[in-house]
Amino acid sequence: xxxxxxxxxxxxxxxxxxxxxxxxxxxxxxxxxxxxxxxxxxxxxxxxxxxxxxxxxxxxxxxxxxxxxxxxxxxxxxxxxxxxxxxxxxxxxxxxxxxxxxxxxxxxxxxxxxxxxxxxxxxxxxxxxxxxxxxxxxxxxxxxxxxxxxxxxxxxxxxxxxxxxxxxxxxxxxxxxxxxxxxxxxxxxxxxxxxxxxxxxxxxxxxxxxxxxxxxxxxxxxxxxxxxxxxxxxxxxxxxxxxxxxxxxxxxxxxxxxxxxxxxxxxxxxxxxxxxxxxxxxxxxxxxxxxxxxxxxxxxxxxxxxxxxxxxxxxxxxxxxxxxxxxxxxxxxxxxxxxxxxxxxxxxxxx
Length: 351
Hints:
Layout: H1 3-14, H2 26-35, H3 41-54, H4 58-63, H5 66-73, H6 80-95, H7 104-107, H8 115-126, H9 135-144, H10 154-167, H11 173-186, H12 205-208, E1 225-236, E2 239-244, E3 255-256, E4 259-262, H13 271-278, E5 289-290, E6 294-297, E7 301-311, E8 326-329, H14 330-334, H15 340-349
Parallel strand pairs: 1-7
Antiparallel strand pairs: 1-2, 1-4, 2-3, 2-8, 5-7, 6-7
């Protein structure tokens, strides 16, 4: 079986027309690859176009304010990707003279660029013969060759990388990589793969051994924990109390409201916890408008969120340095980066 030739032939007849496939600009390829991590093409495409409109070059990206980048990223999740991109863009400008490194090894030195992304840029932009191995590639190779190594293990990842690099086309490594990922994305899909029109239907060992449904093997399961949040949306004369989150959390660098975190569902606000989070001496019972309950699912967390809109009659002085929050008017809030769950609430109840 000439795997590479058959694969590329299939690709030329079945590939989707995507904008990043019409360029060898490493900046545009890098942008698309980072956006498409953990994101479907249909969802990521508008973001790709939006980022290119705002930042046509890596120089523009590096010089942008991180707040603007996070605002444009809003809704994609995994915000560390955006923060790492900003750092990587600055590395390109400061350490590489404004030009992306031109080989796999050097690309790995950029912030947030791992083996897969480095291989994608190296092959798509510079024609380097190095295989890209992502979730789609794991699925195709595990099924065609009935590979049962655990893809979450170091050994398994090494095995798949070796197989992909043995199969990769000598003359068209970029097209081979695109083709292998495309096959996993549109043909050899996780459930109900389209086996009959597959060019490898006769050679597919998983089909022969009836093991398609169990491949690829991933033994390590992510433990998902439940969290219950009460957000305090405190308003005074059209302004809301917010602050920029600091630290290492998933929403680091984004703006949100005072937050009370519980390990189980709580229906009412508790005076002590409100004071602890806001330093406000609110008279109880507090008069508020409670939103619908929101559920937000992350890779390792399930968040159950209620928003409590509290309108103050007297302004609270936030300039004494004892409190991290500030007053923001609605127009300003629209332009700052926020977790998508907060944007959804604001769009429904405030804007």
